[in-house]
Hints:
Distance between the termini: 22 Å
Number of domains: 1
Number of strands: 2
Helix content: 40-55%
Radius of gyration: 16 Å
Strand order of the largest sheet: 1-2
Structural class: mainly alpha
Strand content: 5-15%
Shape: globular
Number of helices: 7
Amino acid sequence: xxxxAIATALIRYGLTEAPPTAGRAAYVLAHQFVAxxxxxxxxxxxxxxxxxxxxxxxWVDVAHEWEARLVVLETAxxxxxxxxxxxxxxxxxxxxxxVPSWAQVQAQRYDAWDETQDGRRHLIDMSDTELGVAAALSxxxxxx
Length: 144
């Protein structure tokens, strides 16, 4: 499940304004969609930024409510020039999607991860995309 797909639909159909309003609404809907999917007994993978403690707590709450295992993989790109290049070269892949500019990415609030508040997460270095994806898949496969 991609939260940017939910936000894009909300904006496209005039149900909310552009970020940050659309982002907040997308997370509220995503939490509910995931809860319904877990209730049906289907595992879920969510692609989301999860920039603040409140959003992260929502995933913890949903997992707890449905007795599901929550596995958080956080991707990181520590080279600012490479990060900027990837943001600036990103192209929308959904009808009506607007991708953020580098300035918007830099201006976005991001709460530092706090394991006591946000829970555990596994950090994946995305300097090399193929190696990062392989590391993420390996981590998930080893959960047993």
